[in-house]
Every structure is written in C-alpha cells, then in structure tokens.
Write a structure and sequence with these properties.
- The structure holds two protein chains of two kinds.
- By secondary structure, chain A is mainly alpha-helical.
- Chain A folds into two domains: 275 residues, ABC transporter involved in vitamin B12 uptake, BtuC; 87 residues, Arc Repressor Mutant, subunit A (Orthogonal Bundle).
- In chain A, helix 2 crosses helix 3, helix 2 packs across helix 9 and helix 10 packs across helix 11.
- Chain B is mostly helical.
- Helix content of chain B is 81%, strand content 0%.
- Chain B is built from 14 helices and no strands.
- The mean pLDDT of chain B is 87.
- Classes of the chains: A mainly alpha, B mainly alpha.
C-alpha cells in the first residue's frame, strides 16, 4: 500500500469508529463529554508514561481509558452535589486535568514524542511512518489500533443494541425493567475514551470531537430511525474523512483540520437542505401551509356569499384584498392556485365556486 | 520580592490578574445563564479568526489578531444559537460541533499560514496554550481597551442584566429587550475570551470564565456580591499562579493559573457556609443528633 492510501484508510477507519459511540452521545445529550474526555485522556497517557517509562506500553492505553472514565465520574460527582450544573461541572473538570497534563509534559517530558501540540492537532500525514509488524506484514500502528477499536465498538453496539436503545430513549423504563442505566452509561463512556485515545494519537483531540459529534448530528437531521442514523453517521464520517484528505492535499494544509472542516460543511448542507428538517424545506412547508389555508378561506368566503345579492361585489377578486386583508400579490397567488386546482372559476373578475370548490368549502366549514 | 521589581514578571502578574478579574466577573453571567460551555466553544472558535486576521492584514499586531478572534467567536456563537433555534439539534451537540469545526478550520488556516514565507508568522501557535511570559506592556493596554467598554456596558444595563440572568421570561413579560441584552452579554463574554487568549490560550480559557463564578456562587446569594467576589477570586488565583510559575523553571503560567483557580473552587465547594458540602454534612449529623435526643 502507498502511504497515501494508508492515510486515507486510517482516516476512514477512525471516522467510522468515532461515529458509532457518537450517535449515542448526541442522542443522550452528552456531546460535550466527548470534549472533556478527548482532553483528559492526555493526563492518563502522561501518568502511565511516568509509571512505565515507555511510550509503547499497553499501560498508556489503560491509563488513558481509566482517566476518561474518571473524568465522567468526577463531572457526575460535582453535578450530583447540586451545587454546580452539569455543563459548568464539565467546564471545571477537564481544564484542570488537562492543565496538570500540560504542566507535567512541559516540565518533565519536554523532549520526547509527547508534546502538547501534536496531541491537540495531530498529524495524520506521519501516521504511516509509525509501523508494527503483524503476522509478518508491516502495517501502520494507527491502522491496526484503529481497526481494533472499530471492531470493539461495532461488536459492543451489536451486543448491547437493545439495551443502548432502551437506555437512550426511555431511561426510566430501562430502570424498571432491571437494566442498570449506569452500567450501560459507563460502558458507553469507556468506549468513548477508548476511541478518543486511539484516534487522537493519529488525528488529534479536536478532530476526535468533530468525527464523534458532527456526522451523527448530520444524520439526526436526515432520519428518525436509529439503525439508519447509525449507518448514515458512519457513511457521512467516512465521506468527510476522504473529502477532507483530498482538500488537504489540494491546498497542502493540515489533514485533521480539513477533515473537521468537511464534517462542518456536511452538517451545514444538511442543516440548510435536509429533505424535511432543513431550513429551506421548513420555510417552503410553512409557505405551502399558509397558502393552503388561504385557499380554504377563499372558498369558504365564496360559499357564504354564493347566490346572495351582493355576490357580484363580495366575490370580486379586488374585494378580497379588502375583506380578507390580504396583500395584493398574496391574494393573486391564492386565486391563481385555487383556479389551478379547479376549485374556482373567474368570469369578468368575479369568482365562482366549482362543484369541487363547493365540496371543499363544506368540508372545511364542518371540519 | 522579584514579582514587583522585575519588569517582565510584573507585566505578567498584572496581566494575569487583570484577566482573572475580568473573566471572573463576566463569567458569572455565562454560568448563571447555563451557558458555561459557550465560553469553551467560543474560545476554540476564535482560532480561525486569529489566522484570518493575520492572513488578511499580514500583521502580528496583538490588537489586529484579537479583533479577528472576536469576530470569529461571535460568528460561532451566532451559528450555534441559529442551529439550536431552527433545528432539533440540542445545545450540547451544537456546542461540540461548532467548537470542533471552527477549531479544525483554524488548524487548516494555521497550517496554511505556516507555509507562508513571511517571518512574522511565528507565534500564532502560542494562542493555543497562551504564553503569559510573552506579555508586554502594550498587551496590557489592549486588555484595558477591550475590557473597558465591556465593563461599562455591564454597569449601564445592570438592572436588566440582573433580571434576565435569573428570570428571562419575567423580563420578557415586562417588555425588556431580552434578545438584545442576551446578544450584549454574549459579546461581553467574547471580550473576556479575547483578552485571555494570549495568556492562557484557547483550550484553557473556559476555566477562567467558569471556575471563579462557580467558586463565588457558593459564598453568596446576591448577584452584586457574587460578581465582585468572582473578580476577586479570579485576580487572587491569577496572582498565585503567576507567583508559582515564577518560582520554577519551565512552568507554564496558564495551566498553573487554571489549577490555582480550580483549587480555589474545590475549597469553596467544600467549605462555603450554608452551601458547602462539609457544611451540609455537618448540618445533617446535627439534625440526626437532635432527632436521636427526642
């Protein structure tokens, strides 16, 4: 494999691995915990490094995951005291833990590979140079670890799908049925920590947040069904990873940054143009509803005055503007629409109901 | 003491204390209005603004860069509010999304800037973690110029701000311009963030807004007292942080300040009268004793 292809493959795998726990973070309104965890795992890595004195020890992994879970526990401890709200608790815990990590690194580990810049920013372009031999084949470390985490996340999701779904949408029912939401919750948080520590080595902590939150948020605008949301999130994450890679290549800029940007652009597109929930669709639906209601008003008005002496005046299209207080352009559009739908006919400016229009007016006046 | 005689140290200390006081004071509104993490998102979102300001003007002048930062942070806040208002995305998701996307775009611009041949580009990265040691007198003036109007606005609209912080619905029913005051408060928080970027950087800035406010909240139920106390706590923690970091070699000022601030908050959560956890525990045991005696 060429390094180019390897980088893309790593990005795709990490994007998929991040999207899986991300869906549940978004649905359970815990997205900002990903921000906290992706920062504090650094402290776990640093502490484990001091104990094991090696950067490749599996202890680093364990330390980081434990620190991620500890972060969540601390946030819940503080917000559980009722003195501080949860969002403020998050904002208290992670800067403190992250500060300790930054200080330890700058003071004791200044010259080794662990530096704060690379943790925050990540540099995917270097990932192919860090290789491990697996079954006699030399593969990038990030690729192996990323695939491992993707596998773990996917199997956890399949094993506990029902429980996760229940705890996410109806925690009270889950508790009554005997599932302990706490176990599922901490399981999810372990998965988030595991993903964060694996991913941030390659792509940096901020891209971890982008890949965990933006694709599920985009998918959330596109579907109401959980399985579809999971699938869409993975697909959107993968798409953002590949397009981000090529954007970075084109302008010779940070790969991780370009991928985060692409997740944002993807979200922006869905936010504006999603079939039902997009802003454009919402505006259009609103206008259609308004027009449909106006047509009903029109036929009702015509029915009221039908056959009476003042019909010639009341049913003149000019009179509508005064009587129903419509803007002239709006009134014109409504009349045109009513004529098009075969509800109304116009003769010398006077409007007459058709049989169909009369039926609709009666229906509307009853309903 | 060196802290008062050495020019650099004095600048760093004064700058940090100024930042601690201002962010502590303005952070109160963010915490009370349940927008504690808005500061986190906005400070991350300032990064592309800094890079863009440099790319457009070609200057590394503090003031220019900070204006760029403020514009980007405000744009992020407005997009965030728009997302929450117009879609079913909840605010935590919107925060994380805006934060990561803006920061990612900032990285793109930063890596682009770093390829430019101009020598002046060095130092943009110091905004990530801040570089209190690099503060010069000009930066202190920039802080004052930015924070002055912000504080004046808060003083001017104090009654409405107070009401809106606690009961926006009631304020709306009285006919107060709630939306406008909310935008004003967001703008004021942006000012605090922009001031802190140089000293503590985008990552740790949120702690400067949240921690003093949370600490001060434990000691009082009055907004006036809380705001002043938060400013005092912020300045105190910044002073202690600057002092500690001056004691040793290679101790970054920003993280130390965040830690002293967190320590102060932890102590407040434990021992503050009435609300503090130890106080609660003590009251509980006393009630039990009284109960047992009856």
């Amino acid at each position: 494999m060429t390094p180019q292809l390897e980088v893309q493959l790593i990005a795709v795998i990490i994007a998929a691995a991040c999207a899986l726990p991300g869906v549940f973070l978004v649905l359970r309104r815990m997205a900002m915990l990903s921000d906290a965890i992706s920062h504090t795992v650094l402290l776990g890595i640093v502490l484990a490094y001091f104990i094991s004195d090696s950067l490749s020890s599996p202890l680093l992994f364990v330390g980081a995951v434990a620190m991620g879970v500890l972060t969540v526990w601390l946030v819940e401890l503080i917000s559980g005291s009722q003195l501080v709200r949860e969002d403020a608790a998050i904002g208290l815990v992670f800067p403190a833990l992250f500060s300790i990590a930054v200080l330890l690194i700058s003071r004791y580990a200044g010259n080794i590979h662990l530096d704060t810049d690379s943790v925050l920013l990540g540099e995917l372009a270097f990932a192919p140079f860090d290789r491990i031999d697996l079954f006699g084949i030399s593969l990038p470390r990030a690729l192996i670890f990323g695939s491992g985490v993707l596998l773990v996340n996917a199997s956890l999701l399949m094993l506990f799908y029902k429980e996760l779904k229940l705890v996410t949408f109806d925690p009270a029912l889950a508790a009554t049925l005997g599932f302990t939401p706490t176990i599922i919750h901490y399981g999810l948080m372990t998965s988030v920590s595991l993903t964060a520590v694996t991913a941030f080595d390659a792509v940096g902590s901020i891209l971890v947040i982008a890949l965990m939150i933006a694709p599920p948020a985009t998918a959330y605008l596109l579907t109401d069904r959980l399985p579809r949301m999971v699938g869409l999130s993975v697909a959107i994450g993968v798409l953002a990873a590949i397009s981000g890679y090529w954007l970075a290549r084109l302008f010779d800029v940070s790969i991780a940054g370009a991928m985060a940007t692409m997740t944002g652009i993807g979200f922006g597109i869905a936010w504006l143009f999603a079939p039902q929930r997009g802003i454009v669709a919402q505006t259009w639906q609103h206008r259609r509803r308004r027009e449909r209601f106006a047509v009903q008003m029109l036929v009702l008005h015509l029915l009221n005055h039908e056959g009476t002496g003042e019909a010639g005046v009341e049913c003149h299209s000019q009179h509508l503007i005064e009587e129903l207080r419509w803007q002239p352009t709006f009134a014109g559009a409504v009349v045109r629409r009513a004529i098009q739908s075969g509800l109304v006919q116009q003769l010398d400016g006077v409007l007459y109901l058709t049989e169909q229009g009369r039926a609709l007016a009666r229906e509307a006046s009853i309903g | 003491m060196e802290l008062f005689t050495d020019y650099t140290l004095r600048t760093v200390t004064i700058g940090s204390m100024l930042l601690g006081a201002i962010s502590g004071l303005l952070g109160c509104f963010a915490v009370l209005r349940r927008q504690a993490l808005l500061g986190d998102a906005m400070s991350h979102a300032a990064l592309p603004g800094i890079a863009l300001a440099f790319l457009i003007t070609g200057q590394r002048d503090t003031f220019t860069l900070l204006i760029g930062a403020a514009i980007a942070a405000l744009a992020a806040a407005l997009w965030l509010l728009a997302i929450v208002r117009t879609s079913r995305i909840k605010d935590d998701t919107a925060l994380a999304l805006v934060l990561a996307v803006f920061f990612g775009f900032g990285l793109v611009l930063l890596s682009y800037v770093q390829r430019q041949p101009t020598a002046a580009q060095a130092g943009l990265k110091s905004f990530l973690f801040g570089q209190a040691a690099a503060l010069v007198e000009r930066d202190l003036w920039a802080m004052l110029v930015i924070s002055g109007p912000a504080l004046a606005l808060v003083a001017l609209f104090w009654p409405s701000i107070k009401l809106i912080s606690f009961d926006p619905d009631f304020a709306r029913s009285l006919g107060l311009p709630v939306r406008r005051v909310e935008v004003l408060l967001t703008g004021v928080i942006v000012a605090a963030i922009v001031i802190g970027l140089q000293t503590v950087g985008v990552v740790l800035m949120s702690a400067m807004l949240i921690a003093p406010a949370v600490a001060a909240r434990q000691w009082t139920n009055r907004l006036e007292t809380m705001v002043l106390l938060a400013a005092g706590f912020g300045a105190l923690a910044a002073f202690a942080g600057a002092w500690i970091s001056a004691l040793g070699d290679r101790i970054a000022t920003g993280p130390v300040i965040v830690l002293t601030m967190s320590g102060l908050t932890a102590v407040s959560l434990l021992i503050a009268p009435e609300r503090g956890l130890l106080w609660q525990r003590w009251r509980l045991t006393r009630w039990r004793q009284i109960g047992n005696n009856h």
